[in-house]
Amino acid sequence: MYIINKGKVNKKGNKRNCFWLVESVRNGDKTNLRNLLYLGNIDIAENERATLGKLIERKIKKMPLTCKFSEKLETMSDAAVLKYNLKWNTPSEISEKNDKTEYVELDLNSLDHSQSRTAGSEIIALEFWKRLGFSQVFDKCGLKPEQIDLAKAVILGRLISPGSELHTYNWLKRETILPEFLPSMKKSIPFNALYEIGDMIYSNKSTIEYLLRHNLKKLYSQTDIIFLYDLTNTYMEGRKVNSKLCKRGKSKEKRTDCPLVTLALVVDQDGFPVYSRIYRGNQSEPATLQDILAEVYENQDSLLTEMMKPAIIMDRGIATKSNMAYLHENDYSYFVIERRNEVTDYEKEFADKDKFTSYEVSGKGEICLRKIVDEDCTRVLVHSSGKKKKEDAIINRKESRFLEDVEKLIKSNKKGSIKNHDKITLRIGRLTERYGSIASIYKFTLVKEDNDLARVKEIKISKSKKSLAKKDHAGCYVIRTDKKDFSAKEIWDFYMNLTKVESSFRALKSELGTRPVYHQKDSRIEAHLFISVLAYYLLRSITYELGKKDYHKSWNGIRDIMRMHTRATINFRNKDGYNYHVRITGQPEKDMKELYDLLNIKFKRFIKKRRISSVDCSTLKKMNSFIPQ
Length: 629
What we know:
This protein is of the alpha+beta class. Among the domains are: 2-117 and 565-625, no CATH class; 340-481, no CATH class. 41% of the residues lie in helices and 22% in strands. A hairpin with a 4-residue loop joins β13 (365-373) and β14. α12 (385-415) packs antiparallel against α13.
């Protein structure tokens, strides 16, 4: 080992010293330098560098010292050895055996702690990474150990502290214990590689999804009963002028000012991902169904059989006539609400309340169901009190806004701000366009001035006797299925599984920080979204295990609880002047321990102990300027 200076001369001609502890490594016929430790801008003469390097090496390798060096070199070498040991020793390499009791008389005034890092969410995430076999999946995709470490860093980073790759880089350096469990990141955390690993992961998308699905089915003994299918979109920051993926369309987050990217997701009856695909932002939703179903069966060929096709449940916007015909022709079972509003076809049936059976559903109020069996399918007429309340509130709010805008127009006319007949007609047309069906039940009357027919003296508005169809049918919808043996309640329960894919999208966008996306290249955008999908495998596995134990906190709530569980280094000096550094994970508090127990995680403290030669603690603190954390 020896010390080199990698400093550079700046624009002003001043040289900045950057000293590194390095060693020579044989790589075939070549010899390369490997960086071991950054020493910073230390105050050392050139003729002392070689001595300091050898002194540090001998202390790291615990070789005997034959002579005493200057206090300056001793202090620098001790501090360097301390930081080297904290950096290069992985907790998993430390024995957990506590057979021997060790007593040390310590100076209480020297007691201190440093390098506190979050540990709670990381311990849970690492356990489920192991259970789902992520490392084996990436190994089968041809990734090297250091690339698997990078993949673990970006995926767990997205799960625990969502953000951009830059955010993940800073999080790994300053906040989390995760690098202590990644062997290839002992020497440094690469920045550009965090971007590049996303490209490599996405290039193996089909294989990764297939293998993870296979692992999930083994872990939870799943049988595919239902496939839930839906699409969502998320917005991009920036103009994305030359992008083939980022297009403007109807934003589900009301961000019409930004280009969009669409994510299609298939999940099973338990909310676990089955297949995902990324489309351009202006993609027609109904046009994706046939392609997705073909790709699912192509990708999952050994997991699915033609004899046991899962039932398809999809959003109303996808259930077009052509898609319904496709499902029928290919012998798919389905539970859907057709895109065309079928409520008007069954007005008489909805009016006959005596033939409905009512049920109380937690969180949804009362639902009334009626089953009608036809030759080709079964329909369930549904009237939901909770849905009616919600739709009535939306209609009333929209109507009140319409009347407010009309009142502004009438006041402007009375003040004389707008009198021209054509301009007023144009304003009324815009109101009608904006408020649609609400405006259709109101009638405008324009009273013209006697001496000038081109000017309007008064604007009158009246409500027609015509009722609003949306209000008459509020809370009503029709579920269609090919299953004839199921009861009305069973059909309704099957369709309500669609909320699981909606909760998946909420988790992807909110809890995993998918939105917004700042990348400029289409390939990086695809990789960013797919990393969020992989993080969702872990999130759903965690919440699924907790749900089985009747624990229903969201992942955000779990993260908030586990954030306070940390790992830190305890520093103290004994009576003989030796400095001890104990790296230890704190004891979990009651709510943290409850989570570990519910998830069947055996908590380990991973204790690391180091004793170094007698150096004053205040001197060691000064060395923080020489060797950064």
